[in-house]
Amino acid sequence: MTKMRLGIIEYIDSAHYLPEHETCGIVHGHTYKIEIVLEGEKQENGMVMDFYIIKKIVKEILKTYDHKLLNDVLPFPSAENICEHMHGQLFEQLGLPVSVKVWEGHGKWCELNGFE
User: Has 67 been annotated as catalytic?
Assistant: First the structure.
């Protein structure tokens, strides 16, 4: 069977601060764009995974972060730590290799690619 990749994009709004950081040490917010790509083989039903199921799982996980102070979720909520944390949850829930790309506002992002 041929491996395929499926992707979705979601958005969350969150606040955070980076302890002891010169400019980001005060509470501020971002709109985060979350790009999720999973990889798998097409099943007998013609799909790798139903987009409805993917979105349902992703939205449930993103509730942890959306409209929250991210410092209550992670001690140092850098883009890298947010991405790594989300990746672990998504891999566990989706059960397939996954790539997560977290955009912090415009022009800044971190990606954890679980395909390699």
Answer: yes
